[in-house]
Amino acid sequence: MRSLQREPGLLLALLAVIVLVCVFILYPQIRVIITPGTGYIDFLSGGTWIRSTSQSIQVMVLSTTTAVLLGFVFAYAMVYTDMPWKPFFRLIGILPLLSPPFVVAASYLILFGPRGLITYGIFGQTISVFGLGGIWGVQTIAFFPFAYQLIADVLSRSDARLEQAARNLGAGPWQVFRSVTLPLSRPGLGAAILTTAIYVLEDFGNPALIGGTFTVLPTQAYGLISGFGDLPGATAVSTLLLALALILYVAKIRLDGGRSFITVSGRASSMPRPPVPVVLTWACFVACLLLAVVILTVYGTLLVSALTLNFPNNLSFTTKHFEYITSDVNGTALQNTLIFGVVAAAFSAVFALVAGWLVERGSWPGRRVLDFLLIMPAAIPGLFFGIGYATAFNEAWLDWLDRGVLIIISMIFWNIPVGYQAAVAGLRQIDRTMDEAATSLGASSLRGFRDVLIPMLGGSISVGFVTTFVRAVTTLSVVIFLFTSGTTVATIRIFQLVNDLNWGRATAFTVADIGMAILALGGIALLSRGRIALGAARA
Amino acid sequence: MPSPSALQSLDAGAVHLRLAHVTKRFGDTAAVDDISFDVPRGSFATLLGPSGCGKTTTLRMIAGFYDPDAGDIVLGGRRINELPAHRRGTAMVFQDYALFPHMTVRGNVSYGLRLAKVAKDELARRVNETLDFVGLGKLGDRWPNQLSGGQQQRVAVARALVLRPEILLLDEPLSNLDAKLRVQLRWELRTLQQQLKMTFVYVTHDQDEALSLSDWIAVMNAGKVEQHGAPWEIYYRPKTAFLADFVGAVNLVPGTVREVRGGQATVQFGERSVTVPVPADTSLREGGEVKLCVRPEALGLAPRGATTDGAALPGTVARKAFLGDLMRYWVTIDGREWIVDQPDPGASTPLDGEVLVQVRPERVHVIAG
Ligand SMILES: Nc1ncnc2c1ncn2[C@@H]1O[C@H](COP(=O)(O)OP(=O)(O)OP(=O)(O)O)[C@@H](O)[C@H]1O
Ligand SMILES: [Mg+2]
Predict the structure, then answer these.
(1) B165 Cβ neighbours under 8 A, 6+ residues apart
(2) Which strands, in side-by-side order, build the sheet including B326-333?
(3) Pocket residue to mutate for ligand 1, from B24, B33, B55, most atoms within 8 A of Cβ
(4) How large is the C-alpha radius of gyration of chain B?
(5) Which CATH number does the domain housing residue B90 bear?
(6) Tell me, what's the pLDDT at A189?
(7) Are residues B221 and B339 in the same domain?
């Protein structure tokens, strides 16, 4: 506290962070929550929320259960067995993280839709694929890779030495897993399940594309605005959604202390684990192979569709879809995606770093509050965040503000938690005597931060950048209320084209979007020699 | 506001650092509890005390890393309580060295000068000079992780010294090194300090280190300074039983004052009594409880029946240990064990069984209470 009085630079930095957090994280949320006003009464008595809420919870429970089960099998196989093809499976597990989750729904429609390749093409059937069953299946496939990453992270952090010790005491592989691994990783697994549940709960794209009349909270909110211009209703629904997500998130924090990023590595962990029976290894291998086939089918369908004239009816090769997406407004959309992503990622990383430093190293009152505010966006559904920005900043006196800038700002602050927590975790690894050494040699706090801490932080700085970039180029729900024709982005165009059933162009866009994320991530992975940490929260 | 007493009678020439009624609390407990002392200019001053007694906390308040809850810190005649840590000119050497891993040795040593915007050639000259001074002239381009513990320690010292700080603070800088190196670097530090005539404030829990290095020692216990002064004073004239025990092996024998006369006191212990000089600042009253404090090496040992000067107490050797440079005996006298050290054990055959312990009254120190 005293150090703040003695160092004006520090005070200034702190004030700047507090103001930005209040304006861009706290204020939009408050605006959404207060917008309905007395409308809450109408809304609650109207009762439409009961159905969408119960349906939201219903699919959340179903999809989370299956996604976690599949994710667990995949994770167990990767961490515990020495099955073949692990590097291949590892890539399969990373690919979905780099793409908008709703591309699974797009692929599903191509294969199973009214004119789908399999349903109509092979079986000549036109069955209804919309509704609960479709969402359940699609979300299971879309989110099991996330569950896998989270669970693998938990399992690989369980101490291999303890397992070796238990084996040494005569326990069989299954006993070890049940009596040592599971009890020790129970909080981590619980947190992984809850995090997966949040993804599912706030998923907007998949239910929007294949939900049909089966509405969940995010699609209801979107429908109220786009269909009826009913802002009070939409904000009330969003607030309900936020409340549910917050409950899950608070429960998660109680379990894992609020870790919101995991390290996604291109390499296997070095710690050897006790061997598992050969039969189990092969069973795992077959299961992973099946899942890999499903994932490859999803993405392969997109790729083939993007490169053929009219998939599946006309399979002649063409580049015209790619020509289309690089021309005019579509070219702008791709360009916007890239620019927004890079700029948001850079600012988010820097801001997260400074904020992390101020909170971790500071000793001023109220830093717990700031810490909470900086982590909170991880619990905010993207749709809610987007509505918040639309509500708070769609003001006449803000007309001078470029929409693109607003989108960038929304991406910066929506993605703060990951970079922030990575910075805090990185700083905790650096002993405070490092700061003090710099101080005792005559460096002010800010100077010591610049000269000593930042160079020592290394990899933790890239975490915020990578995550923000990937999430910025793959999010649909945050931008759906913010874009204008000049500031449209790839995910918006994909969503529109899928709604128009323009599969060739939609899939070409998807391929380009995912390609961008892969290139960016690959580049950074090369720079950081294979280890990259990726934020787990998304929408 | 500086209390008047803090600046009063502060002779900037003689007193370099003054702590006046300094207190630091963490929660409810006072880590440092109302301590006051003066460190003479140009001295090697040591804060000595057991783990957790508040040494580091005191040093960190001097450095400016903690703000005292009460009291004044005066450096070179100037109250520095409000001065930010980076402007105090109190360079510090840390226990784990805290070398910057992303800078070379030269980078580490020049960092403070770069902050002070020292001109390039002057900077290079001073860095080279200092590196030579601590014997690292050839290692300037190494990275910290390419250095041994002792070399890292030297870099840490050089990094602080190159700034010609007002005062150098060292927090257990030798405790991570092996015993032999510790003794060697101890002398290097002492030599360095004497050549530079700089004021060092050194923190340690090792009494050997403190006694051999320091011009001045403050012994701390549970947040308080129990006594400060020259090593000799602390060792032979401790004011409390804790101090006597902490700075080395000691015999503490409870007794009762029977008579005080003319700077001499007769103290009864068990069935016996001894007449000893009364320390200058101690007042004894007849009937009061005291402790007799005798260092083991100040006692003599002789076989039964030998003629001795001074008091001779008959006892039995309970056990003995050969410590290389001396033989240590535990002798039972009237049911109480005394430690007696005999130098140069190779010169005679060790004693056993019934012995006489010789006590010279002038080597007995009396601790009140
Ligand atoms: N930042 C802190 N927060 C709370 N308590 C502290 C803090 N720093 C020190 N203390 C407490 O204050 C007391 C004094 O600690 P200090 O580090 O000064 O001891 P020390 O004499 O340096 O011990 P050591 O020889 O073990 O280094 C201890 O009881 C310690 O637990
Ligand atoms: Mg200490």
Answers:
(1) B89, B90, B91, B198
(2) B299-303, B354-359, B311-322, B326-333, B336-343
(3) B55
(4) 24
(5) 3.40.50.300
(6) 86
(7) no
Q: Are residues B364 and B291 in the same domain?
A: yes
Calculate how close chain A gets to B148, using CA atoms only, in Å.
Answer: 19
Number of domains in chain B: 2
Tell me which residue range forms the domain holding B364.
249-368
Find the residues whose C-beta lies inside 6 A of ligand 1: B 26, 31, 49, 51-57, 205
Q: What is the pLDDT of residue B112?
A: 93
Q: How far is the CA of B47 from the centre of ligand 2 (A)?
A: 10
**pTM for the model:** 0.81
Interval A9-21: pLDDT, tens: 888 999 999 999 9
Q: Do A441 and B98 touch (CB under 8 A)?
A: no
Say what the pLDDT of residue A6 is.
77
The residue among B11, B4, B57 whose CA lies nearest residue B224 is B57
Residues B235 and A323: their CA atoms lie apart, in Å, by 90
Examine the domain organization and report whether B229 and B154 are in the same domain.
yes
d(CA B350, CA B306): 15
pLDDT tens for B10-35 read 444 589 999 999 999 998 999 999 99
Which tens digits make up the pLDDT trace of A48-90? 888 889 999 999 999 999 999 999 999 989 888 888 888 899 8
Residue A79 near residue A152 (C-beta atoms within 8 A) = yes
Distance CA A112, CA B158 (A): 73
**Given the DSSP bridges, would you call strands B29-40 and B15-26 parallel, antiparallel or unpaired?**
antiparallel
Q: Last residue of some domain: B242, B257, B276?
A: B242
Residues B292 and B257 in one domain: yes
The answer on B181 and B322 residing in a single domain is no
The position carrying tokens 């988010």 is A348
Say what the pLDDT of residue A487 is: 86
Residues B256 and B234 in one domain: no
pLDDT higher than 70, residue A453 = yes
Q: What is the pLDDT of residue B42?
A: 92
Q: What integer is the mean pLDDT of A383-400?
A: 86
- Kindly state whether residues B128 and B158 are assigned to the same domain: yes
SS3 state at B338:
strand
Number of CB atoms found within 10 A of residue A314's CB: 10
All structural domains of chain A: 7-31+319-486 (1.10.3720.10), 37-261 (1.10.3720.10)
Which structure tokens are listed for A399? Answer: 């007309």
Tell me which amino acid residue B78 is.
Answer: R
Interface touch B94/A436, C-beta < 8 Å: yes
Decide: B140 and B148 in contact? Cβ < 8 Å. no
- Chain centroid to CA A367: how far? 26
Q: For A350-360, what is each residue's pLDDT tens digit?
A: 999 999 999 98
Stretches in chain B below the pLDDT threshold 70? 1-13, 310
Q: Which of B242, B271, B297 represents a domain boundary (last residue)? A: B242
Q: Can you list the alpha helix ranges (DSSP code H) found in A81-96?
A: 86-94
Taking CA–CA distances from A454, the nearest residue in chain B reads B102
CA distance A124 to A145: 32
Taking a C-beta distance cutoff of 8 angstroms, is the pair A349, A477 a contact? no
Give yes or no: residues B38 and B146 share one domain. Answer: yes
Tokens 């998807």 sit at which residue? Answer: A510
User: What are the DSSP E strand ranges found in B279-349?
Assistant: 289-294, 299-303, 311-322, 326-333, 336-343
Quickly count: other Cβ atoms within 10 Å of residue B281's Cβ. Answer: 8
State in Å: Cα B52 to ligand 2 middle: 7
- DSSP of B17-67: EEEEEEEEEETTEEEEEEEEEEEETT-EEEEE-STTSSHHHHHHHHHTSS-
